[in-house]
């Protein structure tokens, strides 16, 4: 396998803000690089020297333990120095703005910023407003985008549906992916629709009409209100998280009704092709979105998605930060010493 | 010097003439006028309009003087060719009493750049629950005729009905900010293709249209007149058109930015485009232009909404809504309406002077450019082309969406009752 280096490829964009910004070649490069990175996770010492001496700040204005830990693991495996910034209890809660925070980090010499923010567009503003020079990686913004989630999902699909080794260099051409649940409020759905389309997959969104955004007709996907009608032709079914508080806003009548019409249980899973997988970005609401029987089945990739998230984020950091040339290390010892 | 001779201007875009101002009035209009003791303004190629009137301005004083004051706001108004502005009531404290409206009125008089007519709040504290003392505000020195909770919608149908009924006693008008609150909870931009992509809360057109539909029916029911602020959708236009065809006493306004900009600009996430109501689609812009041309929409109003830099230099969701507009309004109207052939300069005079003065009952404004009339006048050079530079603004705030954009037209002179407030583009 050839070694990968950002210098040997057309550089990706300077920041990763939206899955829609990725070309097919960019996305495949990230997925291929993630496969290389995944090999590191198989080693006793899971570490590369690639970002040694570089400082990455995880700037989290919104709670997210899973994504923050995933990024932190990825950064540490690449030997980056990591600063974790949580808005709660920080100067932000005392009224400091995103701009002020960004400029403080810039003054401290941060080399990259991973940002999670409750406001759609905040990472875009951070990247384009001149407040900061460092590359910006979007770790989820409002209901807009979560591009590394889409990448790890695509990585998981390619491994399962195309093959770990046979998938290298390939996309998801012709694969049929169904996303089910709260599309309206889901940055995961937006990111996945964009990326999966770029990778050649056919995407169908399934949700009650109240949870489908006005304007969805411009998205490169189909929309259905009937889950049962699409299961048999799905290579992967990705369940989206539904927040219980949505009920108060009358998006659907009751949890029970939602579960009956849009929940994935064993009976519905049986309608899927044998090779088809069940995905969920987590955390799962068992019983409502997905039954324990499905969540715990071999076809459910939730745990793999978590593991793949670290490899994928390593790949993104490596490619965006343009670290030292990366060659898959031959042994743990050389990894540490190279 | 009390006499001014404006030489060779196109009066209302028609015949070239000389206009002699003597004191506070237009003394004479003709050709070859001479007055040895007059200050002469050479106006060849320029158009002389009646002083512009803005029925919808936010001057921010009292309470947010870091954004704008009556003085800076009226200087901006004079720069834009306005001789009268109606100041919205959502100040701090709210202009919901005779004391506050008189304060704003007095500050306008002291500033001296244009007449400031305060708008009174419809409800106490803009809370939508209890009618403010509408009569007391009307009877005050400010002589309030327009009432609005702008920034918020009077969404309670009973309160709206009572307000419409009550102001009939003194010929007032209720100006409604049409925004159904429940349908716009969390709204950040126009609901549609772009909001779906950007993941920003959608602001559906129907939230505006449903309130307009309700209010024109209420106005019909109680036999009162209602004014609809800043129309932004094609559907709103249709409702107003229907209401007028039915004989309902409704008037409506559109802002310059809704005549030019669309929600596609929000893709930049630049809060300079964040405004209430939100920028809509190309289809809406087309409908609004046509409606302004055919008179369905009566007037252009700026909704001049100054905000300090820090309130806009942030992420979209945290940013304040609004944009300044007094100093660019005429240029945008020239570009969108005149240069597209939809409106001639007489039409501009109607939509930006005669009609707003009539709706707001602004004495001495919106009068014909004729001998014997108050000399409230605006001179504009329509051939001018230039990039907008906010550094040139007189407004205290610079939150303009037009920075760096080339716009046509330039107001060169503004006269308030015969006194020049703007000379060769510079404030007097």
From TrEMBL, chain A:
It catalyses: carbamoyl phosphate + L-aspartate = N-carbamoyl-L-aspartate + phosphate + H(+). Residues 14-158 form the Aspartate/ornithine carbamoyltransferase carbamoyl-P binding domain. Residues 174-320 form the Aspartate/ornithine carbamoyltransferase Asp/Orn-binding domain. Catalyzes the condensation of carbamoyl phosphate and aspartate to form carbamoyl aspartate and inorganic phosphate, the committed step in the de novo pyrimidine nucleotide biosynthesis pathway. InterPro entries: Asp/Orn_carbamoyltranf_P-bd, Asp/Orn_carbamoylTrfase, Asp/Orn_carbamoylTrfase_sf, Asp_carbamoyltransf, Asp_carbamoyltransf_Asp/Orn-bd. L-aspartate binds at residues 94, 187, 241. The keyword Transferase applies. Keywords: Pyrimidine biosynthesis, Transferase. Its EC number is 2.1.3.2. This is Aspartate carbamoyltransferase. GO terms for cellular component: cytosol. GO terms for biological process: 'de novo' pyrimidine nucleobase biosynthetic process; 'de novo' UMP biosynthetic process; amino acid metabolic process. It comes from Streptomyces laurentii. Heterododecamer (2C3:3R2) of six catalytic PyrB chains organized as two trimers (C3), and six regulatory PyrI chains organized as three dimers (R2). One of its GO terms (molecular function) is aspartate carbamoyltransferase activity.
From TrEMBL, chain B:
It catalyses: (S)-dihydroorotate + H2O = N-carbamoyl-L-aspartate + H(+). Substrate binds at residues 58-60, 90, 276, 307. Its cofactor is Zn(2+). One of its GO terms (biological process) is purine nucleobase catabolic process. Keywords: Hydrolase, Metal-binding, Pyrimidine biosynthesis, Zinc. Binds 2 Zn(2+) ions per subunit. It is an enzyme of class 3 (hydrolase). GO terms for molecular function: allantoinase activity; dihydroorotase activity; zinc ion binding. The active site is at residue 303. Zn(2+) 1 binds at residues 56, 58, 150, 303. Residues 45-233 form the Dihydroorotase catalytic domain. Belongs to the metallo-dependent hydrolases superfamily. DHOase family. Class I DHOase subfamily. Catalyzes the reversible cyclization of carbamoyl aspartate to dihydroorotate. This is Dihydroorotase. It comes from Streptomyces laurentii. The gene is pyrC.
């Amino acid at each position: 396998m050839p070694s990968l280096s950002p210098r040997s490829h057309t550089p990706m964009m300077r920041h990763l803000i939206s899955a829609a910004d990725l070309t097919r070649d960019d996305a495949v490069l990230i997925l291929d690089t993630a496969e290389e990175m995944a090999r590191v996770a198989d080693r006793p010492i899971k570490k590369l020297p690639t970002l040694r001496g570089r400082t990455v700040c995880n700037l989290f204005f919104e709670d997210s333990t899973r994504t923050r830990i995933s990024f932190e693991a990825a950064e540490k495996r690449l030997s980056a120095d990591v600063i974790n910034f949580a808005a709660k209890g920080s100067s932000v809660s005392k009224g400091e703005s995103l701009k002020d925070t960004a400029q403080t980090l810039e003054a401290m010499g941060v080399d990259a910023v991973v940002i999670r923010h409750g406001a759609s567009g905040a990472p875009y503003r951070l990247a384009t407003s001149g407040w900061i020079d460092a590359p910006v990686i979007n770790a989820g913004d409002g209901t807009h985008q979560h591009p590394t989630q889409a990448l790890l999902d695509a990585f998981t699909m390619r491994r399962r549906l195309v093959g770990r080794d046979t998938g290298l260099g390939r996309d998801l051409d012709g694969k049929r992916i169904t996303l089910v649940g709260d599309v309206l409020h889901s940055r995961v759905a937006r990111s996945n629709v964009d990326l999966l389309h770029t990778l050649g997959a056919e995407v169908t969104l399934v949700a009650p009409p109240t949870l489908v955004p006005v304007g969805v007709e411009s998205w490169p996907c189909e929309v259905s209100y009937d889950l049962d009608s699409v299961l048999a032709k799905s290579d992967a079914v990705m369940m989206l998280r539904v927040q219980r508080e949505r009920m108060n806003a009358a998006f659907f009548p009751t949890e029970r009704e939602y579960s009956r019409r849009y929940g994935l249980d064993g009976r519905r899973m049986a309608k899927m092709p044998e090779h088809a997988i069940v995905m969920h970005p987590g955390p799962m609401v068992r019983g409502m979105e997905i039954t324990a029987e499905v969540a715990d089945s071999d076809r459910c990739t939730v745990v793999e998605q978590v593991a793949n998230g670290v490899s994928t984020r390593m790949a993104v950091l490596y490619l965006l930060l343009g670290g030292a040339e990366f060659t898959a290390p031959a042994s743990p010892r050389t990894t540490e010493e190279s | 010097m009390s006499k001014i001779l404006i030489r060779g201007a196109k009066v209302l875009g028609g015949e070239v003439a000389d206009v002699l101002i003597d004191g506070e009035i237009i003394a004479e209009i003709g050709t070859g006028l001479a007055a040895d003791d007059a200050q002469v303004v050479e106006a060849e190629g320029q158009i002389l309009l009646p002083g512009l009137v803005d029925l919808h301005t936010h001057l921010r004083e009292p309470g947010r003087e870091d954004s704008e004051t009556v003085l800076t706001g009226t200087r901006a108004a004079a720069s834009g060719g306005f001789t009268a502005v109606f100041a919205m009531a959502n100040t701090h404290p709210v202009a919901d009493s005779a004391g506050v409206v008189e304060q704003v009125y007095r500050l306008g008089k002291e500033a001296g750049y244009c007449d400031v007519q305060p708008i009174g709040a419809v409800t106490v504290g803009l809370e939508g629950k209890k009618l403010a003392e509408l009569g007391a505000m009307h009877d005050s020195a400010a002589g309030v005729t327009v009432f609005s909770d702008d920034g918020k919608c009077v969404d309670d149908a009973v309160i709206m009905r009572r307000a419409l009924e009550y102001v009939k006693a003194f010929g007032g008008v209720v100006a409604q900010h049409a925004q159904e609150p429940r349908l716009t909870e969390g709204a950040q931009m126009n609901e549609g293709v772009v909001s779906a992509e950007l993941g920003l809360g959608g602001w559906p057109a129907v939230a505006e249209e449903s309130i307009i539909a309700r209010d024109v029916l209420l106005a019909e029911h109680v036999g009162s007149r209602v004014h609809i602020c800043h129309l932004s959708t094609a559907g709103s236009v249709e409702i107003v058109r229907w209401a007028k065809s039915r004989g309902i006493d409704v008037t409506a306004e559109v802002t310059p930015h809704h005549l030019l900009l669309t929600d596609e600009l929000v893709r930049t996430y630049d809060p300079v485009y964040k405004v209430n109501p939100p920028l809509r689609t190309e289809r809406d812009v087309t409908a609004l232009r046509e409606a302004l041309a055919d008179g369905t929409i009566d007037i252009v109003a700026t909704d001049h909404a100054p905000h300090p830099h820090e309130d806009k230099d942030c992420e979209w969701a945290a940013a304040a809504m609004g944009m300044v507009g007094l100093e660019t309004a005429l240029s945008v109207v020239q570009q969108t309406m005149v240069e597209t052939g939809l409106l001639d300069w007489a039409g501009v005079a109607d939509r930006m002077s005669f009609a707003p003065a009539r709706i707001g009952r602004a004495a001495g404004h919106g009068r014909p450019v004729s001998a014997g009339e108050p000399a409230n006048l605006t001179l504009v050079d329509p051939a001018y082309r230039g990039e907008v530079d906010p550094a040139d603004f007189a407004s205290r705030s610079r939150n303009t969406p037009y920075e760096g954009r080339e716009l046509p037209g330039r107001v060169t002179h503004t006269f308030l009752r015969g006194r020049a407030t703007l000379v060769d583009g510079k404030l007097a």
